[in-house]
Design brief:
Blueprint lengths: L11 E3 L3 H4 L7 E7 L10 E7 L10 E4 L14 E3 L5 E3 L9 H4 L8 H14 L9 H9 L1 H15 L2 H6 L30
Antiparallel strand pairs: 1-2, 2-3, 3-4, 5-6
Helix pairs in contact: 4-5
């Protein structure tokens, strides 16, 4: 288990329903405010990152998600709904993924949350990999016209990555374009979207 308040340099907020999941003093689900790295087009941005720790943490990687939008080749900004077992469609917190090998494939128990927020995410934003994209539009723009890509990133930062947007991100809303998330590819609990008619 992980005590999020150990990340003293970051603003950490517990997710409301933690008491239902665990009665321990450790939280498995919380939000972290993440600032864009300096000297990048993401500088000045503020993102609300949703963090969910699996029961096997630190042996299994955490699931992380940008709650407010970001324009980046390796972060899928698609927004989808998922059908629950009861048949109700809900916002899928895993819609949109991050292409970051260290979280999705090569995670080690030696890593911790500080590594994610001080090394892995800043490096991902600083050095995008357009040859392995999750956001094809961002990747194509970065390869075709890097200056225009930087302008679009800055537009997203201004519009979606300010304090107000981070504060409002994750509120119950019907507007699909307010949320982009990043999650764990290896989730075994995914439900099918529905029945296929034959």
């Amino acid at each position: 288990m992980y005590a999020p308040w150990l990340m003293s340099d970051y603003e950490v907020t517990l997710v409301n329903d933690n008491s239902e999941k665990k009665s321990s003093i450790y939280s498995q689900e919380f939000y972290v405010r993440f600032k864009g790295p300096q000297e990048t087009p993401f500088e000045g941005g503020l993102w609300k990152i949703h963090v969910e720790l699996p029961d096997q943490y630190p042996y299994k990687s955490p699931s992380i998600g940008f709650v407010n939008r970001i324009f980046h080749p390796n972060i899928d900004e698609l927004y989808v709904n998922r059908q629950t077992q009861s048949g109700v469609f809900t916002d899928d917190p895993r819609s949109g993924s991050v292409c970051l090998d260290v979280i999705n494939q090569t995670w080690s128990p030696m890593f911790d949350m500080i590594n994610i927020f001080e090394v892995f995410l800043p490096q991902l934003l600083r050095y995008p990999n357009p040859t392995d994209p999750l956001n094809g539009e961002a990747a194509a723009l970065l390869m075709r016209d890097p200056k225009t890509y930087d302008v679009k990133v800055k537009e997203y930062v201004t519009r979606y990555a300010n304090r107000e947007a981070a504060d409002e991100a994750g509120d119950d809303s019907d507007e699909d374009d307010e949320m982009s998330s990043v999650g764990d590819f290896e989730s075994d609990d995914e439900e099918p979207a529905g029945q296929m008619e034959v």
